């Protein structure tokens, strides 16, 4: 269930008893999105873990099985049926309920009897393979009905319910039958959950023996409250089965989620028919996701209303237990099976390959490299670096805070030499602290790289390699701020190595979109507004001048700037170089630019402004920074990433015009904008001789 891939593969969760006031043994399982399919041995290992941890449901909906969704009408071949039967039997051996899902919503004609017959034939075949539990999925499909269905049904919901009820009866009312609605979260419901005509039809007409899947307030829900579940239960006329995407990572290939199952109170347990989890695409990292889910589910057998403060689920404690158990797995000498992607065990004598052939280094030789063992602290750090969709772990937040402070205080030292002396010692101390945290990440990477269990390592490697590279770059940047020279490969120059700019084409697209950065997990203060960047039009001029005059009052300096003439409309900006930043209240920022400041400076038009006659930028500066930009962001805009998007869009326009650099002018006491831009780390302060002392010039190469 995903905006990006629209697919599910392998599902694990918990299904609570259909009747009974007392909660019995929780059932559970796991799920996986589109991506490299899990192997048969991985699925069998999942069943073993489920049984060990008290979970016992598995929803089969893999996208590598084309006959689950795209070719849902086709029966399985004898070879395919044998594989599926093997999987069903393996689940049964571990007391795991195997739930077969089919997803016909891409192209089914609900009113055609042949379509219903094809569904019955397909599910009857699977039933003959030993499966007794089923799911019908209508997630992530178009809601427009074909003409034939419009004649037969009054609504899309009625069409889905009709087919689902028919299948449920055809299968002789199986113990477990799940229905995934098209509106599977509150965000999809129009106008709201209680007033959704779609959900009302499903609740009223779907057979009472069929359970309904629900992801919560959103597709990926940060919190799922008791009140929200009570609300949807009233409309559906039954408790839902939560299909939780808190650990799903298929929408961002650079993110992995190793934090605990959290922000779901255990008071939900008696109000649900079940909980299913969509974990990470990679199999091995899901140890934490499923282990902590199992711990959460175990509170279904406890009296959570007791006054004992230690009786409720603690996600931090659950995480510690999961990581402790996972550490044992890292020590197992497992290797990928080259033939089938499964596991092969090394012999005990092979656990550490011998590379020395009896070699003993002499007293003046380099000592032999010795791999350090992985520790629980290393895994805790790994989890905190790759935590959850809406939050970083504690160490990650601390590293970001320290880097932000080091950047900000370095700006203060540049601007205020007196403060540079008084704050030097604290800056040095905190720079060393940040360096130590970066070193711990590299140490964790090195230890992970040498674990005996290569299967787990290979699932983690791209992620840990990426974070190691990121912190190494940040470490080099802090050294640069402190006046040291990092390794040449890490130097922050105008022509960096490719690892100095990340994201590829996808990153370029994202940086151009209005939403880029507004949901960064680390932001101070939080950004909750929606901003729009658009070309300036004539009716914007009064609002632009209002912001301009407020800035002049704020700075109270009488220095005239070239950029002022752009803002006031006396000079026309270059093509595509006049941008407005809007929020709900109106214009909240602007950027105007001239691609060729030198030509303007030498023009009679420039000399007509007597106040600018003494402001002559040197030829050497204009050769490297030929363009000038005037930018101002209103103080009501707290989000630095919003300013970054505005600036980057302007820089892109100047780059397209052929410019190789741009400068911007600021009054020296415009402290707010100076801090704002320094934090963005897009511009650097330029040293330009012969200019007024109350003028600061910042620039960047294009």
TrEMBL record:
Which reactions are catalysed by this chain? 3-O-(N-acetyl-beta-D-glucosaminyl)-L-seryl-[protein] + H2O = N-acetyl-D-glucosamine + L-seryl-[protein]; 3-O-(N-acetyl-beta-D-glucosaminyl)-L-threonyl-[protein] + H2O = L-threonyl-[protein] + N-acetyl-D-glucosamine
The residues covered by the GH84 domain are 25-301
Q: Name one GO biological process term.
A: glycoprotein metabolic process
Keyword hit for Hydrolase: yes
Q: Which InterPro entries match?
A: GH (IPR017853), Glycosyl_Hydrolase_84 (IPR051822), O-GlcNAcase_cat (IPR011496)
Give the molecular function GO annotations. Answer: [protein]-3-O-(N-acetyl-D-glucosaminyl)-L-serine/L-threonine O-N-acetyl-alpha-D-glucosaminase activity; beta-N-acetylglucosaminidase activity
Q: What UniProt keywords are attached to this protein's entry?
A: Glycosidase, Hydrolase
The record's listing under PROSITE patterns reads: GH84
Q: Does the keyword Transmembrane helix apply?
A: no
Identify the stretch(es) annotated as Disordered: 334-370
Name of this chain's protein = protein O-GlcNAcase
Task: Tell me the organism.
Answer: Cyprinus carpio
């Amino acid at each position: 269930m995903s905006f990006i891939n629209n697919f599910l593969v392998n599902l694990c969760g918990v299904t609570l008893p259909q009747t009974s006031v007392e909660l019995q043994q929780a059932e559970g399982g796991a799920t996986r999105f589109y991506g490299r399919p899990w192997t048969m041995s991985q699925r069998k290992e999942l069943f073993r873990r489920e049984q060990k941890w008290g979970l016992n449901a598995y929803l089969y909906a893999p996208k590598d099985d084309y006959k689950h969704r795209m070719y849902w009408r086709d029966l399985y071949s004898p070879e395919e049926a044998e594989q599926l039967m093997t999987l069903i039997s393996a689940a049964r051996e571990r007391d795991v309920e195997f739930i077969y899902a089919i997803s016909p919503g891409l192209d089914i004609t609900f009113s055609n009897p042949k379509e219903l017959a094809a569904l019955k034939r397909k599910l009857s075949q699977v039933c003959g393979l030993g499966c007794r539990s089923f799911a019908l999925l209508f997630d992530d499909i178009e809601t427009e009905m074909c003409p034939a269905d419009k004649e037969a049904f009054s609504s899309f919901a009625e069409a889905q319910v009709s087919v689902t009820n028919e299948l449920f009866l055809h299968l002789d009312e199986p113990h477990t039958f799940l229905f995934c609605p098209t509106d599977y979260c509150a965000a999809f419901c129009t106008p709201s959950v209680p007033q959704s005509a779609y959900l009302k039809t499903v609740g009223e007409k779907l057979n009472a023996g069929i359970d309904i899947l629900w992801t919560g307030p959103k597709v990926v829900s940060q919190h799922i409250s008791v009140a929200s579940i009570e609300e949807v239960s009233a409309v559906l006329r039954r408790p839902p089965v939560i299909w939780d995407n808190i650990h799903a990572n298929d929408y961002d290939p650079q993110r992995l989620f190793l934090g605990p199952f959290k922000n779901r109170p255990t008071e939900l347990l008696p109000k649900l028919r079940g909980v299913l989890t969509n974990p990470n695409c990679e199999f091995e990292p899901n140890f934490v996701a499923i282990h902590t889910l199992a711990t959460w589910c175990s509170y279904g057998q406890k009296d959570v209303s007791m006054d004992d403060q230690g009786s409720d689920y603690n996600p931090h404690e659950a995480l510690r237990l999961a990581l402790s158990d996972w550490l044992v797995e890292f020590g197992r000498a497992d290797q990928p099976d080259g033939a089938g992607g499964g596991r092969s065990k090394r012999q005990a004598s092979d656990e550490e390959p011998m590379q020395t052939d009896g070699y003993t280094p002499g007293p003046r030789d380099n000592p032999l490299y010795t791999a350090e063992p992985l520790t629980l602290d290393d895994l805790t750090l790994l989890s905190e670096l790759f935590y959850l969709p809406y939050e970083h772990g504690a160490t990650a937040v601390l590293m970001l805070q320290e880097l932000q402070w080091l950047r900000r205080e370095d700006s203060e030292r540049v601007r205020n030499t007196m403060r540079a002396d008084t704050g030097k010692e604290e800056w040095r101390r905190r720079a060393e602290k940040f360096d130590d945290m970066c070193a711990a990440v590299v140490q964790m990477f090195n230890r992970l790289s040498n674990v005996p269990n290569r299967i787990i390592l290979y699932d983690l490697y791209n992620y840990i390699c990426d974070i190691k590279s990121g912190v190494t770059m940040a470490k080099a940047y802090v050294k640069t701020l402190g006046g040291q020279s990092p390794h040449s490969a890490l130097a922050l120059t105008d022509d960096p190595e490719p690892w100095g700019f990340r994201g590829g084409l996808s990153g370029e697209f994202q940086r151009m979109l209005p939403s880029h950065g507004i949901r960064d997990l680390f932001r101070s203060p939080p950004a909750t507004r929606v901003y729009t960047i658009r070309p300036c039009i004539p009716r914007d001029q009064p609002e632009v001048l209002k912001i301009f005059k407020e800035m002049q009052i704020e700075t109270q300096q009488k220095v005239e700037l070239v950029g002022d003439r752009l803002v006031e409309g006396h000079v026309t900006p270059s093509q595509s170089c006049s941008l407005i930043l809007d929020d709900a209240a109106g214009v909240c920022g602007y950027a105007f630019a001239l691609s060729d400041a030198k030509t303007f400076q030498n023009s009679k038009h420039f000399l007509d402004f007597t106040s600018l006659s003494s402001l002559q930028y040197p030829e050497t500066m204009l050769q490297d920074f030929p363009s000038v930009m005037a930018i101002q962001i209103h103080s009501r805009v707290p989000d630095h990433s919003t300013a970054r998007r505005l600036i980057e869009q302007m820089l892109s326009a100047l780059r397209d015009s052929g410019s190789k650099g741009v400068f911007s002018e600021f009054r020296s006491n415009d402290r707010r904008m100076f801090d704002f831009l320094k934090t963005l780390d897009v511009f650097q302060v330029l040293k330009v001789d012969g200019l007024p002392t109350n003028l600061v010039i910042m620039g960047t190469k294009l």
